[in-house]
């Protein structure tokens, strides 16, 4: 495998992984006449017509008509034989298959790109992939970078066919008006600009708020008494909670770093890093919830669910403020981390002392009991 083809493969893999990560942003099947966002599946039915399709999904299938562009990141992108796209197709995916008609250009970064014998592309084809097969009609130029590039017997290319591949196969029946040229410089540049698939800031913030709210609901529902103690810690002693949070934030990574130095401690450090990461997320949610509970208490309200909503939404809004937003988030995190650490310590000590009727048996009581016997 050449360096360029390896770079193309890594690029396609990164695109596919990015697409799968973005699936958790939303669910459902697109039904509007113009789609923009995220869904499990984006399907344009045989009798449907969309103005454009832009977003992230597990599967994108065009069986009907898209009058404008299709710009997607997905596991699979398929323009079927009955599908028609009037504009361009820009796709980052695991598999991209064109069986239908595309009026503009096709730009694809994927594991596999297939332009079948029934495909008709009115513009250029630019692709970076592991495997590329062109067996349809492309009116413009083709730039293909891959480990394997195949030019099939039904291929009709109106312009030039440039490729960079470790393995190249051309059927004698293929027609290329502008000639076939090997170009070692196109491999890492072929395909769409991934900047097109950047998640809007508002969408990332909305998703973060959603998952934090979901975690908060779980914490309050499963550990109601403990969650109340954490909030009371923040309200009762904010300076102590923040100080303990800061010390914890410094001490835990140092301990994990020391463990990494020893071979025996490497597994422990990996587990510890994971646990601390989850704990930090919980601490952030607890900190924001605690501030929300404190704010409601000033108004004479005592509702943990409303406190969760007020705290998380409030900090999501504050987080949008340049510079200061990050400081607000840090303060909430330190308060939550410190209060969480103190509450856990209190719970552990309480369990250790509760060994006999809710209190620990003393040595004198034990000795007296023995003499009385």
TrEMBL record:
Q: Where are the transmembrane segments?
A: 201-223, 244-268, 274-298, 305-321, 327-344
Against InterPro entries, the record matches this protein to:
BacA/B, DUF8173
Q: Name one Pfam family in it.
A: DUF8173
- Write out the coiled-coil annotation as residue ranges: none
Q: Which residues form the DUF8173 domain?
A: 200-342
Keywords for this protein: Membrane, Transmembrane, Transmembrane helix
- Per the record, which residues fall in region Disordered? 350-373
Q: What is this protein called?
A: Polymer-forming cytoskeletal protein
State the organism of origin: Haloarcula nitratireducens
């Amino acid at each position: 495998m050449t360096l360029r083809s390896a770079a193309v493969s890594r690029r396609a893999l990164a695109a596919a992984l990015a697409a799968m990560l973005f699936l958790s942003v939303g669910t459902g099947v697109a039904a509007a006449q113009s789609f923009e966002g995220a869904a499990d599946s984006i399907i344009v039915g045989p009798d449907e017509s969309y103005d454009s399709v832009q977003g992230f999904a597990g599967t994108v299938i065009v069986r009907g008509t898209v009058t404008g562009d299709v710009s997607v990141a997905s596991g699979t992108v398929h323009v079927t034989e009955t599908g028609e796209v009037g504009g361009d197709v820009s796709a980052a995916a695991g598999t991209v298959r064109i069986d239908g008609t595309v009026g503009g250009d096709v730009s694809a970064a994927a594991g596999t790109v297939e332009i079948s014998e029934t495909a008709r592309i009115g513009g250029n084809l630019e692709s970076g992939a592991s495997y590329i097969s062109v067996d349809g009609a492309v009116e413009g130029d083709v730039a293909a970078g891959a480990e394997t590039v195949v030019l099939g017997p039904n291929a009709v290319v109106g312009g030039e066919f440039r490729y960079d591949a470790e393995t190249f196969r051309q059927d004698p029946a293929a027609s290329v008006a502008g000639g076939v040229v090997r170009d070692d410089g196109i491999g890492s540049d072929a395909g769409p600009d991934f900047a097109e698939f950047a998640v809007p800031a508002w969408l990332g913030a909305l998703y973060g708020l959603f998952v934090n709210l979901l975690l908060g609901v779980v914490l309050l529902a499963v550990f109601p008494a403990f969650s109340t103690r954490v909030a009371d810690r923040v309200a009762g002693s904010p300076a102590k909670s923040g100080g303990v949070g800061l010390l914890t934030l410094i001490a835990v990574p140092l301990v994990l770093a020391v463990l990494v130095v020893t071979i025996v401690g490497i597994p422990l450090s990996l587990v510890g890093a994971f646990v601390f990461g989850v704990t930090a997320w919980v601490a952030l949610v607890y900190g924001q919830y605690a501030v929300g509970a404190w704010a409601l208490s000033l108004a004479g309200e005592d509702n943990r669910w409303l406190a969760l909503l007020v705290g998380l939404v409030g900090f999501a809004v504050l987080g949008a403020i340049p510079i200061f937003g990050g400081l607000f988030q840090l303060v909430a995190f330190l308060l939550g981390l410190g209060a969480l650490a103190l509450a856990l310590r209190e719970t552990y000590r309480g369990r250790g002392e509760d060994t006999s009727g809710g209190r620990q048996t003393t040595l004198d009581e034990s000795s007296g009991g023995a003499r009385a016997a």
